[in-house]
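Section 3.1: Structural characterization of target chains.
Under the original work plan, the team committed to producing a structural model for every single-chain target entering the pipeline before any wet-lab resources were allocated. The record below documents one such target. The sequence was received from the expression subgroup and is listed exactly as submitted; it comprises 368 residues.
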Amino acid sequence: MDINANAMEGIKKIMIFIETQDLTKKYNEKFALKNVNIKVERGEFLALVGPSGSGKTTFLRLLDLLEEPSSGRIIFDGVDTACSEREKIMLRRRIGMVFQQSIMFNTSVFNNIAYPLKIRGIKNGINEKVKEALTLVGLKGFEKRNALTLSGGEMQRVSLAQALVFDPELLLLDEPTANLDPKNTSIIEEVISKVNKEHKVTVIMATHNISQAERLALKAAILYEGRIIEIKSAKEAFNKPSVNLAFFTNVCNIYSGQAYPIDEGLSLIDLGENVKVEAVTQKRGPITIFIKPEEIIVSTKPIQSSARNILKGKITEIMNLENNQVKIKVDAGKEFTVVLTKKSFKEMNLNLESEVYLSFKASSIHII
């Protein structure tokens, strides 16, 4: 290896901020995590994506040094966390953690946010730091409010302020916007993105929300039954999902069919059941495609648009989601899953068995 190659290898090692090596955790002989190997660079944003029970929370608790691994190693900024208790305390002071459920003391918002500073021995500038954290999460002027009187969304924003008030180098987030309304979700996402991009805080976020992971993260790790299935860039993972990702994260609207080029840059794809769609591809023969539920437009009548694909079907299932969204399943020869706002859903007066039209562009069909 030449000198330049050695130098590059050294730089790469310096950039690795968090590394796990065969990280394993068992509870009563049952594996919660098994041989997890991940490397996260300083300033990176990693999304942990997987269904409930896949090991996301366990992984974050291990990284936060709240629990000991059954085996394997965690390397934090070059330091093996299998170190002395004093060294662990010093490492934990560099980590902020936001849990899915907010935990508030029965005292003022100010005291709740100041608490992480006090237990870290920070005495100077507490007032300024707390006010800055509150302003960051959009709760300026809430200092004297009792934390237990806040709404669920406001409590979660206080939790985020607690995690950021001491300027952590690593921010761990466990489903930070689960069951929150759109306003609080938007604020929390904006803050998380800002501290990552502007302050270069390394972020690791567990979520089952694929759209959220795609919006915020640079890289995605897919967890299933305690194992890492794959790690790739978030853009690649969610715009061109592999069969593994589609299966293990319950991605909807995956279809296989036969492709026939029909025009320059376009192919007709026969999905069977008399369902044919047009996609931007010149591929011929067997093909697997994916359509994001958010990229399908629902209407009660055919609409005039540039969308090359219009299918008619009936609603077979309705499910309310967080963030004021509704997920519906439509039988249009094939089952299609669509996500739309509750406002649109109500305005169209949709119900089970309602006839609807699904419209989507050829460019909305992604080739797997």
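Residues 182-197 form the longest helix (16 residues).
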